[in-house]
# Entry
Amino acid sequence: MMKKQASKKPPQPDLTHPIHFLAFGFGTGCSPKAPGTLGTLAAVGLYVPLSSLPEWGYLLVVFAVVMSGIAICDWSARQLGVHDHPGIVWDEIAGYLITMIAAPDGGLWILLGFALFRLFDIFKPWPISYLDRQIGGGLGIMLDDVAAGLAAFGLMQLIATLI
# Structure
């Protein structure tokens, strides 16, 4: 059973360990302020080269990021003894990549996807909030951000269709 962290500063990961390095978004999750936002910025950096893949290739990468993320987030959380440590941002990376599935080309869409994903991830409307509260472990860490990514994806596609 993982304990809730009593102090304000959660334990820090060993970024020389490859799983912590991934879970903490290549180090972006170690930021004392807005680690989720910085993790999402790391996702933008991944999205740009991935966007040139054929759609099936992009979907395969997103699937791999999500599925591996369950184990990556679970292992890091267990090692640190904190469920959903604020610095674990692999889930934000997955959520943003989901948001950007079949996104139109261009910087404006990259920014819009970023803003929509962060809004859904921060405010967690139902059912995202339900998933966040009810499901534990690596699956729970990942699932609310996958749901936020799907909600942002849906809204992005609606906007793209209307424009």
About this structure: The chain has one domain: 18-162. The chain has a mean pLDDT of 94. The two ends are 49 Å apart (CA to CA).
